[in-house]
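Sorry to interrupt, but I need a hand with the structure work. Can you supply me with one protein entry, sequence and fold together? No commentary is needed, just the two lines. Leave the record below and I will have a look.
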Amino acid sequence: MRIVRLSDVSTREVIKEMQKKLSISAGAETPDTRKKTIEVFGEALSPLESTRRIVNDVRRDGDEAVFRYTRLLDGFALDASTVRVSKEEMAAASRRMPEDFMRAARNAIQRVRRFQEHILNRAPAELTDGGRRLGVKYVAVRRVGAYVPGFSATLPSSVIMNCVPAQVAGVEEVALCTPPRASGEICPEILACCELLGIKEVYRIGGAQAIAALAFGTASVPKVDMVVGPGNIFTTLAKKEVFGDVAIDILAGPSEVLVLADDSARADVVAADILSQAEHAPAAAFLVTPSEELAEAVAAEIERQLAKLPRRDATAKVLEEYALAIVTETMDEAVAVSNDLAPEHLQITTSDNADVVSKMRNAGTVFVGGWTPIAAGDYYAGPSHTLPTGGTAKFFSGLSANDFLRQMSVVEYDETALAEDSDDITTLAESEGLTAHAESVRVRFEKTKRDG
């Protein structure tokens, strides 16, 4: 892990360059993506160009495009008879799961459900003012499409973290898409979690074609109203492309971790938290600290722990290309760097955690103290692990049950209240040249005047 000092002239440029690389809009081309686009499209395309082509093809050609891209990108010959996972396959997956997995999944579902119910928006009491009654009504989106990644790692936890909040909000239908293996098989842990949650509509579709199928609908995949879930750069760009045709949650791309720590933190624990997210690959990892000694100890500890990881080669590439240990003069400087980077996962271990947390403005989820590994939030604690990445935590929040609720204002006047407000309403309407607006108020009193 490369160590830089904030006081060095070049460091801020290094950080800016890293932010640019991590930005959702960057969509950086890699040798692997270049090779793949040549194979699939016959020419080298950027991730954005590839995504737009896939999305537009699915919009135009429906199932045919979905099946074609699944064959080209995932290596499975999908058709109308195999696109949807059968009830029997889902039940069989549950039976194959060891009991310790099923127990852990049930417990995680219970934890997430409890937290999401705790934070669910509820309509406040009506505001009454004379003959005016003003309120809000919360109504759940009817049909949601949840995307669960399955390329670099299969993520059954994403079933729980996307679908439980939707269920708590009252969503009637949840359709789930996840990419098939070359054999057509879906990760059995994903199917087992679907079975536990009662999700019966599961499709063997991944990537940008899955997002487009959910957003526009095809002969095999009914259209949804909202698409949620994390994914790689292609699925994230696809969500940007379909926004407006459907609602989306956030732009949740490759994983990020930032550990904010001082010399009270254990180097082995900090290193473990960094590696826990870097192993997603692609990912980004930062340590920001006023302690150069800690930065050096963590870098050494990362090397030691990395050697033991099964995914060490891919993780090592992340640490080489997308990781920095930034040494600051003070903790306040460290906080400012963190707020500027706006990480997906922020882990804070300092001698005064409460003070540091009070100064944080931008992060997906904050994990406080040495006994709060990011993995607790990834799998179990309660908040969803679908979080904003690429600096978008400056204006996005993590997914929750409240994202599935639409707020409708409810306004009711009686005759006396409208009479009291009519002059102001008509004056404002006529100032905008909207005479019919004003007349819609006046006409209500004409019969009253004639009858009087």
In short: The first strand starts at residue 2 and ends at 5. The chain has three domains: 2-24+253-394, 87-249+401-406, 414-451.
